[in-house]
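Listing 4. Sequential folding, example run.
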Amino acid sequence: MSSNCSLCRTELTSMDTLLGENKLSDGGILCNKCLDKISYINQEVLYNLSKFSIDDIVNIVENKKTEQNQPVILKDENLPIAVNAEPETLSKEVYKRRKRKIKNELENLNANLSAFTRGEIKELPNLIPEDEKMIGITDAQFKNTLDAGVLIATDKRMLSVSKSMFGSAKINDFHNDTIKSVSFVTDPRSPIIKLHLEERVVEFECYMDKEDAEKFYDIIRPIYNSPSIQQKPQPKQVATTSPIPSGEIFAQLEKLGKLRENGILTDAEFAEQKRKLLGLLE
């Protein structure tokens, strides 16, 4: 058995085999970092890795590079408007000062975030300057994606941050002047927060905590919905209940297992988050 990743050729570690080898159809193995990057390009890899050979993986990477060299055509889809994978680099002093400020704001907001958001929270000092105030935050991800993260409201903008365990952060800005209104779709499993922009609607699923999502929406609704919109009677939107793909839930459970194995989560925290995720399968 090879002790190196078939793609990047780095030596495999115990973390790469903690939940089983990332084995390819030709016997090769991917490290977790490469698997994370490839599955972001093609989610099928995440669920059916054993059907792909290293040649298939290389082709996926090469095709992605080719696409990146082509002109970008924006479509009316639920996709990020802009992605910034390299947040601002700060001095240690500024980072610590911003971190203290953000910690105080999270405490004042009684933020109720899942264990999955620890990576995103660490990014916030790089993203939110000292003259910008957080007024709300909740677990949220782009609809129909695996980009779990947080949705943040400040006094100047809405901000989504998603950081995978092995990749860089994906950051999306929605400045106040680009948001025409917001809406909330009730769903017993996964309520949806919609940002109505000038040319399209961006949707976020909030499957970790329904009540927290409603609380967050109550904060942003009076900011982005004009009085005329609020006073006009509108039929209540109710989404048809559709189960979250089990593969997505199991992927989150695997991440939880890694966090516990590395001492980031206590057994109690692991059990609580596991209970919430398994409840979505019912």
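-- end of first protein; second protein begins --
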Amino acid sequence: LVLRGRQVGVLRAPEAPHEVVPRGGRRQAPQLEGVALRRQRADVFEALAELRRQGHDLPRIARHGVTLLLRQVFEHGLFHADPHPGNIFVLPGEVICLLDYGMVGQLMPEDTERFADLLAAVFRKDTAAATTAVLEAADITGPVDRRALERELHEFIAFEAERIMAGVAFGEALGRVIAILRQHGLALPARYILLIKALATMEQVAHDLDPTLDVAVHLRPYVERLIRRRYSSRRVLRDLTRTARALLVLGRTLPTDVHGLLVGLDRDGLKVALRPEDLQRLTHARERSASWITFGLIIGALIVGSSLVLHRSTGPALLGVSLLGLVGYILATVLGLGMVFSMWRARRF
């Protein structure tokens, strides 16, 4: 797959009408004249020097590489997921040729829209919209504290948004989003991980070619175009048509479904299922409440008994005060403080 200017094409081997391929053999790949960027860092610098010697425009190559990947993602939903320098071949005329499609990512239209929503929210510094986009994209297997997640995303956007929009830490910022999701027990599907990996890799390659390249400048038009397309009159009409069809289907099936539900309730009654973990929580709460009541009765008895002992001056005394009464008060105070601390830890204060 190549990009030259705005055109995307497919590299094909020249036809060989009289070529005979032996059984189990392979057709010889076409020989391309160009410069491979190579994978090792030292080799990459050598390749960049070779490109300069041949008179190539390195910033133009960087722009072509970024545009190529963005078009694959936002226009085709099928992208090269491993565009490291070893898989990039520069042909004459700053034509980019991507090699080795062993790792390819595929996105549904909804996937690109969610990703665009997240990027647009980051560009606008809209934390609520970013949280919604992240939750729609992530795999949710349990309860999520949306407020805590939104708070962390707010801090992330507040400190990282400027660098993202400056195009100097795009891949790093997306990696930070993944880390935040993991802290909240969330995970992105593999297709998003491949997308982030591809963007971060291409960003690094582009910055090797042109350190001043602003990836966000190239990314923003695709995001804005996708959002405009979603809210276009044609798209809105299509969504309304789908909704109307779904409502018609629901209108036909709802009476039958409700009738079946009522018949089932009349025949079998209403059954409530409790999970073992729910019963364990109820049992634990009951035992804890019983313990607090018991402690309260003991503390009350100590206070009453100590008051009676002090009033009658029973037993040994210190400065005219009954030691038994003082010990009772001290013990009641210690038990009371312990119960208050226990209630505070259980957040039942």
